Amino acid sequence: MADRVGGRPRVVGDVSIYPIGAGTSLSEYVRAASRAMRSVRGIRLVPGAMSTVVEAANLRTIFTAVGRAHDALQKMGAKRIAIQLRIDHRLDKPETIEYKVGRIRGAP
Length: 108
Prior knowledge:
It is a single chain. By secondary structure, the protein is an alpha+beta fold. The protein is built from three helices and four strands, in the order E-H-E-E-H-E-H. Strand 2 and strand 3 form a beta hairpin. Helix 1 crosses helix 2. It is elongated and about 45 Å long.
């Protein structure tokens, strides 16, 4: 299938990262975190209203991206940072973000 990357297992997850105590508008922080994660080679991001879906060939790439996002918020002066990270690492077959969404929508 075209949505499976070379038949290799992929790691899919979602991440939400934000400073605590930085006010009610966090879009500046979210943009900075997203830019920092995008700087990691091999990461795919799909931003959403409440979190960002991430995909990579391995866990290390995702952890590196989340670490860079954390560093970016720290450099912006955040005194406390919350991170929620959920991972789906399926080893029995290759999956991508599109594959998972397609299955929900009823694709074969």
